[in-house]
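REQUEST ID: PR-0412
SUBMITTED BY: lab tech R.K.
PRIORITY: routine
TASK: structure prediction, single protein chain
INPUT:
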Amino acid sequence: MMACKTTLTAEDLPDNLGPLRAAIERAVPHGRQPGNRDPGAWQKPPGSVNTAWAQLEPEFTELCRDYPKLAKTNHIQHLGTLGSGNHFIEVCLDEAGAVWFMLHSGSRGVGNFIGTMFIELAKQDAMRHQANLPDRDLAYFEEGSRYFGDYVRAVGWAQKFAATNREVMMKRVIEAAKTVIHKNFQAHTEAVNCHHNYVQKETHFGQEVWLTRKGAVSAKAGQLGIIPGSMGARSYIVRGKGNADSFESCSHGAGRVMSRGDAKRQFTLADHRAATEGVECRKDKDVIDETPAASGLFTPRQWVAKAVRQGAIKAQRAARTRVRASAATPSGPWRTAFPSGCGQKARARRCNARRVSNPAPICALLAGFLATTRPTAVA
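STATUS: complete
OUTPUT:
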């Protein structure tokens, strides 16, 4: 996840957000289609991508010496691209009317391959040394074992790729916005770039441990994080409270309350259009699986009502002024959002973070296919 506050305000945005959405869609490859010309990958990476890749390539080359199949993955071709599934780009407004840019993506094809490859190696290891495992999917590497060091090294590189991928995309999003918004503005006045599927060594309860956060972000005391909303709901910029009992972690965002298939069967186009009223986004059958009601977070109307009852935020309609772009296809569905905060007090206590801002989408790109569910893929 990455979010970036700008010096723009709501009044600086055009009344018609369509051209802004189109400019961002052209700037950032997204989606997925079978065949040789993948719209979600670079056919010829631009100079900014080549420059970023130069910082990642030496360590990647070393990994390829030990695992040659890595060289055949989409690596530079996916650097600076959004992907699919629930990945998205949003233009958002916060409670004060400031414009933010937000995006959700990770280590893309190469990260997924690294995760998949080491999962299989762990399963093979388990067959030899962990015969009593109740399920092969519980396979793991013991520290000091044959593949443990290689896995740590590879996943560490994938996390660098993920962070760089988001930085490259954010720069391209801002550049694209400047071709449509003719007022000069500054970005990165406040920026957050955080992983939400990753592993790293940390100290908890007096012990040094390897901690995996799956669908979670780090919430150390004072640390900024992001809890994205569903398609049509506010997102949350949060600041960690450093709660030891949660391993200084916080929920990553909207969990699904039903499968994609169930969402397609249960909701109609009319339902989806009503749920995303006021949001510039795709409203066709191919994105119904990402409709707001398929996720566990509140819709904007419910969110505001509950927040008012709990005294967390003022009643606002900002969340209705959103646009979301989706990467389901090359043209992609969008939602527009305005940044808001970390959420209700009760949620803040549970998630070990307090609200900083509450972005509501006004223009967004949503990746319309599930990218990966691998627990070790980095995002």
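NOTES: Residues 148-178 form the longest helix (31 residues).
REVIEWED BY: pending
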